[in-house]
Amino acid sequence: MKFNLKQWTFKQKVYLSLKSNETKNKLKYAKASIIAILIGFIVGFIVVYLAGGDGVQYMQALFTSAFSNFTAGGVSASQLSVTLNYFVVFALMGLGLALGFKVGLFNMGGSGQAVFGFGMAYLALLSITKEKNISMSEIGSGYIFILFIIFILSGVTISLIAGILKVFLNIHEVVTTIMLNWIVWYMVKFFINQTNTNFIEQSFLAVGGYNWLGGLIAVVLSFASVWFVLTFTTYGYKFRIIGKQPSAGKYAGINSRLYIVITTAFQGLFISMGGFFYYFTIARQLNYYADVIPTIGFDAICVALVAFNNVLGILPVAWVWAILNSGAISAASWGLVAKETSYLIFGVIIYSATIYSLLFRFVPFKWAKFWNYFVRDTKLKLYVKSINSQIKDLKKSKRNIKNEQAIILAKEELIKFKQENKNNKDSNFSLKYKNLKLNFEDLNDQYRGKYHKQIIELKEMRTEAIDKGFENYYNRNLSGVKQTYNNAKVLNIIGILNTAITDLNEVDKLLFDYNSNFKEQIKQDKSAKSELTNKKKDYKNNLIQKINSNYQEKIKEINNINKNYTAQYKQNKILLKEELKQIKLDLNNKIKLEKDKVKKNELLIEKYNKILEVNDKYVFSGK
């Protein structure tokens, strides 16, 4: 297989990117979302059992029915189609809402924008039926593009109203969007003037017989476009600055008002797209039996929040929401539990996501590593015990500040002064008594503050000692030794990668210059085009072949060095374990036989230090 330097550099960039701190930080959010979802399912499982149902059967029904055929009321349909349509709706609406959340716009108007879009599209359908003198079911799918445009423009208009009011009148978008929800609800209700709209035919959006395919294509195009714009364009960079550091964006000359208005427009676009697929594939009608706004827009807010507004993170969360919505219908029809159980699961997931800072700290492996270290470091344990004892004494002193000599004297002076001047109504007496009382209260505050400060300092010393000890241990134990070899291998890759990128850029520059000359030569002599094209091809091939051959040997050499590092680590690992085993064997017998507590602690400290010394012998030395 031929070596290709560009492919190699791409693979290494991907590898280093996955190892980067930025990726690890993003994975923390993913972990928090996964834990939140798991907590929701566990609570739902427990609730089903408490309600007298079978939790296992319910969960099984929830997932399997979301991908199966579903029969209810004598009507059979593919539940997978329903699940995919829900996924499309939640993904698009969640995307629109997440864009707003990223810049601090908490749009609550998803339902209103969807209702208004459907209302305008439905009025257009009624107009077509009157003009053509046909029924709603006879309208062809050729009108779907016009209906789509009407739906989108209507939703974008409502979203833009909220953005403009925020930018120019400083009216908070939460108030605006909630008010607009009700305004458009009654507007649509007034203009349609029916208890419910006619049923929309599913065939309107069918592509090749699948009514979910068009929506899925829209999801792919929308997410790919947004991800590309936010990641690789100037607009995306400015957008991120406004979201993370609005003050910095303002001083950098970014027109934040313009970006907020543009963001609300895009929110309206994606929310309306989601609403369009919701009303034309799932709900297929709007009823007014009760003045209750559809909750689909509010459900989508949860998708964005649980995904922590991550564009790509919205997709798996939307999929979970789709399964819960679609599967709940089937599970309820089987008589397992009420359909509302799935909404309980939603609620628990959302609540769990809101306490994401706690979920970030849920690091069981790190906790296990820490306690594994702490039980070994006797010196630290004794130090922590001493600190805890001091803190306990200070807390006791803080509670009993009334026993402090200065406070006792101040209190006695206050009581004595009050008794001696019991019947004295002179204003000077009142002033002096007030000063004595203030002095007494100040003394109390001073002692409380002094003890509080000492407690805080001791706690900080304790935390610093534990953190340093933990870091020192894991930098010098077996995993730390392994990390030194891994770091050496990464540094080797980075060293050659940097020079490779520089040389590839130089090759691109040479090819660009040659291409410019090639075009000029073609203009001057068109008859020589074939000959010049071949020369150009040969020149390009020679350059690429040369750089590939140069780096092939270098990279082969680096790979061999890294393989040697791996073999060296494996060999050292065996030797290290053998030495550690011998040290533990020698000292463990002494520790068991030693009855004096002080001497026993000294032996434990000696054992710990020797273990670290042995580990240090096998740390990567660069040879």
UniProtKB/TrEMBL annotation:
GO CC terms, sorted: plasma membrane
Chief localisation class: membrane
GO MF annotation terms: transmembrane transporter activity
Entry's transmembrane regions: 29-52, 84-105, 112-129, 141-162, 174-192, 212-237, 258-280, 292-312, 343-363
Pfam families, A to Z: BPD_transp_2
Subcellular location: Cell membrane
Keywords: Cell membrane, Coiled coil, Membrane, Transmembrane, Transmembrane helix
Coiled coil region boundaries: 515-597
Topological category with respect to the lipid bilayer: Multi-pass membrane protein
Protein name listed in UniProt: Ribose/galactose ABC transporter permease
Source organism per UniProt: Spiroplasma helicoides
Lineage: Bacteria, Bacillati, Mycoplasmatota, Mollicutes, Entomoplasmatales
